[in-house]
Structure formats: structure tokens, C-alpha cells
Amino acid sequence: AAATSPGQMADALRHSGGGKMPDIVYVPGTGANALRQAEAAVKTGVTTIGSLQWSGLRQAELDRLDKACFTGPDPVRFDRLSSVYRAQLDEEMGVIAALAVDAVGMAHSVGGAAGLSRRSAFEGLLGDTRFDHDKTCERHLAILRIDQGNVLPVT
To answer: Are 101 and 85 in contact (CB under 8 A)?
Structure first.
């Protein structure tokens, strides 16, 4: 069974660390079990980090993960369109919807395959995106910290 209380989590972390607590715990998922483990890790005092998937957490989940960090879209860029999305569709805009908005915007801005290799980055909701000459994609995400239920960029 997974460690989901702070005491169980602390014991499991010390056991796996040869008696020492780790500096950081990475919890990439957002399923119920993963979030219980993240909450327990936060309560042990260990720095807890999540992935881009955490961008879609509900307010109640953010409230329980105080001081945890994760990568995600810059809140200023994302929230601008997210509020319009919420008003028009009466639901939250998730990462998949933001990816679709970025894909359409990028396709419009580059004007074809040759435009993908330009050196300037496309400024999307999920960060600046650039394609390198070797055809790899480079996307800059913000480092975000949960502070009393608010998601703030780490500077």
C-alpha cells in the first residue's frame, strides 16, 4: 500500500533514503493516490515537486499542497484566455485545450514547415516554443509555487 499519511510517508522516505530524508520528492501524477502521496510529502516538510499535469489541479487540491512546486504555463498568459474560456464554456481550460490554442497559433504564425526553424520563439499560452534545426522542440515553462492556494511564478 502506498504511504498516504505524513507519518507513513516520512517512514517510507527515510527507509528508502537509508535513514535520511530526501531533499526533494517528485510526484508527477494527478490521480487520487498520487495527490494523497503529494499531500503527505508536503506535510513531512520535504520539498515536493509535480509536473505539468499539476496545472489542471482544482482549487481544493491546490489548497492541500501548500509550498509544493511544479512546472506549468505562465499564469499571466494562461489566465488571460482561461477566464474567457470559462465565461464562454462554463468550464476550466486545461492543458490540452491550451496546447490546441498554441498549435493553431503556431501554425498561423509560421506559415508553413520552413517557418518552424526560425530562431525566434512562438509565444504561446504554455510558454515560448522553438523548433531547433534537428527538429526537436524546445518549450519554456514557468516554475510555479503553490502559496496558500495561489499559484505563483518562482522568480
So the answer is: no
What pLDDT tens digit does each residue of the chain (155 aa) get? 566 788 999 999 999 999 999 999 999 999 999 999 999 999 999 999 999 889 888 899 999 999 999 998 888 888 888 889 989 999 888 878 888 998 898 888 877 666 666 667 888 888 888 887 787 888 888 899 999 999 999 96
pTM score, whole prediction:
0.74
- DSSP 8-state assignment for residue 83: H
Contact 73, 51 (CB under 8 A): no
Please enumerate, as own/partner, the contacts of 47-56 that have beta carbons within 8 Å and a separation of 24 or more.
Answer: 47/23, 48/24, 49/24, 49/25, 50/26, 51/26, 52/95, 52/141, 53/28, 53/29, 53/95, 54/30, 55/94, 55/95, 56/30, 56/92, 56/94, 56/95
Return the amino acid letter for 61.
E
